[in-house]
Input
Amino acid sequence: MIVNATDLKNNLGKYLRLSAREEIIVTSNGRCVARLMAYEDAGAARTASGIVMEKAEAYAEFPRKATYEEFLRLSENSEERYEYIDGEIYLLASPKTSHQKALGELHIIFHNWFKGKLCRPMLAPYDITLGRGPENINVVQPDLMVICDLEDKLNEKDYYMGTPALMVEILSESTRGKDAIRKLDLYMSAGVKEYWVVNPFSREVTVYCFTNGDLSRHTTYRHGEIAVSCAFPGFEVRLEQVFA
Output
C-alpha cells in the first residue's frame, strides 16, 4: 500500500493497524521516503521446533495460534506469568532494574494524585481481559493502569473484567515493538482512553489519546519536560522524577 505523508499523519492509528498485515510505503512530494511495516525483533531466534525465543529479558513467543480456553488452562496451572494477544501466548520474563525503578517512581506519583478520587491505580501482576469482539479475547498485564469502575466489574472470583481508563507500559530492549505497536492497537480498539509508553533508555514518555477507538493525538515528552494526561485533566508527571 502507498500513502502520502499527510494522510499518514492524519490517520496514524489506522495505518498502524494496517501495517500488521501489509507493508506501507510513505510518499512526500511524489517521492517514496519511508516504509511502515510490522515490527520483527532482530534479537529473536527460531528453534528447530518453530518456537521463537527472544532475549532473556523479553517475552518467549509461541507463534502457533492457541484458543482462549487453552490459554486459561496454561495460565491457571503455572507459576509463570503469561499474556494472550490476538490468539498468541507470551511468557513474561523478570524485568530489569531500570524498568522497576521507573515503575516504582510512577506508582508513587499515580498513587498520590489519585488518592481520594474515584479512579484507582493498580500494579502488575494483574490480569486485564480486553475484547476486540466476542471472538477475540485478550489478556494482558500492563505495568501500571488506572481503573475507574473497579468495584462494579469484579467477577465471582475477584478478577476485574472491565476496561481501564489508562494503561502504562515500560519498555525493555526486546519488547518495545510489541508494547509500542501491538499493544497500542489492542488498547486503542478495546476502549482504553489513554496509553503511556515509557522508554527508560531514551528517558521519554509518549502519551497516546484515543477517541471512539481511534488515535486522536499523541505527544512524546522528553527528560526535563512534564507529561500531561488527556483523560484526567490536571494530572501531570515530571519526567525528571520518573528517570531520577
About this structure: Residues 41-63 have pLDDT under 50 and may be disordered. The chain has three domains: 2-36, 45-92, 97-242. The longest strand covers residues 214-222. The domain at 97-242 is CATH 3.90.1570.10 (tt1808, chain A).
